[in-house]
Amino acid sequence: MRRLGQRLNQYLVVFVVAVSLNFMLPRLMPGNPLALLAGVDVGLMTPEQRAEVIEQVGLNAPLFDQFVDYWKAVLTGDLGFSFRSGRPISEMIGERLPWTLLITGASLLLSAVIGIVVGSFSAWKRGKKSDLTLLTGMISLQSLPSFWLGMLLISVFAVQLGWLPSFGAVTPASDLTGWANVRDIAEHAVLPIVTLTVLSIPGVYMTMRYSMLEVLGDDFIRTARAKGASETRVLFGHVARNAIAPVVTFLAIRFAFAFGGSVIIETVFSYPGLGRLVFESVSGRDYPVMQAAFLVFTVAVLLANLLADLLYPLLDPRMREA
Amino acid sequence: MTKRWTLPILLVVIAMIATACGDSDESTTTTAAPSGTATTVSLAPGETQPPATTAAPAEPITVRAAITGGEDTINPYTYISGFPGWNLLMMQYDSLMQLDADGIPQPWLADSVTANEDLTQYTMTIVDGATWHDGMPLTVNDVKFTFDYFIENATGRFSRDLRGVESVEVSADGALVVDLAAPNPAFDLVALADIPILPQHVWEGIATPGEQTFDISTNVGSGPFMLTDFQEDQSYRFKANPDYFRGTPAIDELVVIVFADDSGALAAIRSGEVDVIFERVSPEQIELLDAQDPLDISQGPEFTTQMINFDASKAPFDDLAVRQAIELAVDKQDIVDTVFLGAATVGSPGWVHPDKPAYNPEVVPVFDPAAANALLDDAGYADSDGDGIREFDGQPMQFEMLTNSSDSLRLRIAELVSEMLADVGIGVTVASVETATWEEAVWPGFDISNGRNYDIAAWGWSAPVQANTIRIAELVNGDPGVGFLNLTGFANDDVDRVSAALLTEADPAASQALIDELQVLIAENVPFVLLAYPDGAYVYNSDVYADWEFIAGQGIVSKVSLLAPGDRP
After folding, report:
1. Which residues of B fall within a CB distance of 8 Å from A159?
2. Which of the listed residues B56, B202, B233, B293 has the most CB atoms within 10 Å of its CB?
3. Average of pLDDT values for A250-272?
4. In sequence order, which residues have a C-beta less than 8 Å from that of residue A280 and are 6 or more positions away?
């Protein structure tokens, strides 16, 4: 328990630093939210009108006061209002989050399954031709730029073949309900999910393969074989089970980072998730939305790390404290 | 092992889809239609819409249009961009005058517009039979209310349009009389054809629009389309207004889809998922898209500009010889051919587009690098260390040229220009930065009194600045109150005198004489270098709708394109 307490203290420090940075980041960026606040006609405004706009959103206050207000808001869970639309940010994030969870969650699960299975297989066949082919293939996949892969899939499956929609989460203005709506959503999610999945398989694969190779050398595997267990039983009952712990950690952290990775994918597919919200808010210097979205990312990464920390001893008894 | 995994995965995916569905259902119901009209036309899939006209029971036409970047709730206080934000705003609202295909304002909500001799008083009567989307009649009182409201509650654009208005009154015979403090020959173009008329009964309850959070329930206009649904960063849904005073629109529904970037929109029109792109397509796409059936291109001259700005308030750009040398060193025809593949007009050194009646034909671009070199040699800018770069004040003439990364054509222009300037001994490295960063350097805080943080920048103005020729004064006048778009810090007494006179000249012939003189002065003194006016080219699916009207200088995105040909101005 003492160790857990120390861990929590560390997380607290990281949280305070990260959240403070979230406040500074938008303000350190060159550029000005005025264009967003006043529209493109900002150049036509008198200096008095501009000052009024800045005052309305509280950007004229001393930086320190803004900082204190920001922390108060963070601690009370009040994310404030968007410069762009004037809407409560919690509401905006609430609208966007399910879309991001859908594509990142589904792709993470798919890539976990595929990565673990293929990784185990590869380790089992270590050094053989099938292992080396897979390994080379995975390294090539890992080096694909995400936007390029997304555009390639759009070009093939939406433009050339016409099988799947190329953009958005739903067909606009389609009035679909019930199962037709579920189907529509699923169709729109296919390409983003495939893109994200393809991009995250190699990481899972590498971790699983490496971890398996370590376990395969252990004594208890030799014992299992010696007592006559079948190859499948050895692979899944003994090796994979013991090799899974690092993969779970990897996945937990990967999930948090997938949030950030969704910025590019959601832009390529014009998908209305959290990543798109970040893209639009950064483009327009919508400070409150940027801060709130970064806060969500920060919390997600920290929670994922904490989860991995807590899960690890459960999966690997060697990590438990005496 | 796979078996143990299958069920949980399925469950989680289904749960996620369900969460997402629940969310989208909820947001559709919360953004309900403003005026009750939507409930009467809300259709289940498969159901057909009652025919809009009795003439022929045609299939309802839905046009799906792509835009890049959201426009919030598109009312006069919330739309974001001048283009296409204002254009979408005006699908729902009407102005007193409307631009025709030649870009000339014609009477619209006003059925007559007359001005007194010295252009200080405009008198208008309002058409009979125009109604608001909620069925209330549109009267002259709404127009007066609108003018007063915009004067009292500032917006960037419409309040600026109305500066100089002294009084707005309704006369005994029901005409609107607007008195101006000074003659304004462009009042019809900048104000009457620009300002959306608001319904008094909706807006009089909104005391401080700047602090109001709007949903689409305030979007009650008189225009041919009614906004019935809005999903942030996803789509807008406009239904045709069957009672439109000019006649029922030519299409039944306009769905505007918000893309994150232009490549998404291009993929969607090629896959048949959208029917028109409201942003211009880039020159290298024109032929490719036109070759694909049923896509077609509508192309014509537009008034946006591509130019080079320099900080003329500091060395070496405060020296006329340097500015003239840059003007002479740049091969504008090459830029039009190489970057725009011919789909642009060569920039006039006098700012005014050659297709405009106000253009002075004596002002023509000259490309002469030898003359540029001679000018710089004579002015004493020698290359003393033989590195190919001249020196000024003991420093090399080596500068950073800023450009915005979101405009790939502008980046190519900047690269070409840097090569051209190298030929006359001026070293330029191109720095492509994100748009907000670029704006902040060239136009800090959008207020020229904040100065400038750049040496050279590739720049461009939106169409309205060129459309109204008189605005030339705003670009070149040295007094920040007048020349509030003078981003280069340029100052010249002759230019100041002529441009100030232009702003208040009521007599059309005298005004044109001043514009002619000003073009000559600008070409001589080079406050900036105008490279090209890119053509507008728009791609549309001609199977779905083909009657797009290209308004000279403005493009196809306007209500005019979506009205029956007989109902257009």
Report:
1. 267, 270-271
2. B233
3. 84
4. A84, A286, B69, B70, B233, B260
Q: What is the pLDDT of residue B185?
A: 82
Q: Beta strand pairing status for B398-404 and B456-459? A: parallel
Task: State pLDDT tens for residues B414-465.
Answer: 999 999 999 999 999 999 998 888 988 999 888 888 899 999 999 999 887 8
Chain B, window 462-491: residues with a beta carbon less than 8 angstroms from a chain A beta carbon = 462, 484-485
Q: Which of B401, B376, B379, B370 is nearest to B389 (CA)?
A: B376
* CA distances to A68, A74, B20 from A77, in Å: 14, 5, 23
Q: Which site among B7, B9, B10, B16 would you substitute to test the A interface, given the most A Cβ atoms closer than 10 Å to its Cβ?
A: B16
Rounded-to-integer distance, Cα B489 and Cα B485, Å = 9
Distance CA B477, CA B475 (A): 6
| Amino acid B57: pLDDT | 57
Binary contact (A272, B213; C-beta < 8 A): no
Q: Is the dihedral of CA B144, B146, B152, B156 positive or negative?
A: negative
Contacts of B136 (CB under 8 A, 6+ apart): B199, B201
Domains and CATH numbers, chain B: 1-31+94-211 (3.90.76.10), 60-92+223-302+536-569 (3.40.190.10), 306-534 (3.10.105.10)
- What would the mean pLDDT of B533-549 be, rounded to a whole number? 95
Q: Is B454 helix (H, G, I), strand (E, B) or coil?
A: coil
pLDDT in tens, B191-210: 999 999 999 999 999 988 87
ipTM of the complex: 0.85
Q: Where do the DSSP E strands lie in B9-164?
A: 62-68, 97-99, 105-107, 110-115, 121-126
B23 inside 8 A of chain A by CB: yes
Neighbours of A232 (CB within 10 A): 9
For residue B320 the two structure tokens come to 């006329």
pLDDT recorded at residue B462:
82
Residue range B70-124, pLDDT digits in tens:
888 898 888 877 788 899 999 999 999 999 988 889 999 999 999 998 889 999 9
